[in-house]
């Protein structure tokens, strides 16, 4: 669907105050995943805790009492933690050049930087007169070893996203080609061909877009506006099927458009809202999609009323998949919550900009 076209079915629905049409959302460049993206809060936190755990254990080998162990731990912490923070900062600043190097060169540079960071930590204590004589070689070797472990963890972190993304795309493709969904969509198009050919054409375009997104081989995060556009295609198809039973409300914040999401994250949540809110109810339900930027965080909400009651409980696979993929992309910087309160089921996502 071209950006300039707004689905007629959405034009007929009331928009919440401040809502923006999807076609007016600014186009953003897609960002590349970097192995050495060490400026993320989760990566920094885990690296610092790992190094501190190593310090605590290493101190036990050199002391025989409680107070000497505490003193040695403080001494080593004063060298190790500044060194690891410097390593994380330098590697983060060099993530783009490092990404262009061959894999062996990436490891060599990262480990060499670790050795320099270890020597830097040792130099701090030596300069303060707290470490005489200074174990330069041991400090550099320790820094190289720790950096090697951190690089392995960063590589594993990126590779761990690939199976999750592949599974999500396969699940999405299966959902799109479910016999009853395809049968209902084509039946609706056939019914519209003679009386409303323009609507039939739009319906088939929306179906085509769903297939295109499901089959797209994208391993990179997408801007929020693209995920909203995909949800728009899906809801347009279901609007033809359910008619007035499906009531859609959009409240979109343009400032939230820069947020990045794993591919095919939002659409399964919208599909769940239709499946469990609209489909089982004779009177239908209201599906509401809201985005809002709050400082450096974007809040995304997908809610649906449940007039027919909570009904049969699903297996929760779609929600679990979304939660896991968000964790892989944004780690501790994201939050995922779902709850049924006063006849309204809400899924809430908080992601960094």
Q: Proportion of β residues?
A: 5-15%
* Oligomeric category: single chain
pLDDT averaged residue by residue = 78
Number of strands: 7
Number of helices: 11
**Main sheet overview:** 5 strands, mixed
- In terms of per-residue confidence, which ranges show pLDDT below 50 for 5 or more consecutive residues? 1-31
Order of helices and strands: HHHHHHHHEHEEHEEHEE
Strand order of the largest sheet: 2-4-5-7-6
Helical coverage, percent range: 55-70%
Category from helices, strands and their pairing: alpha+beta
Entry summary:
This protein is of the alpha+beta class. Helix content is 58%, strand content 13%. The protein contains eleven helices and seven strands.
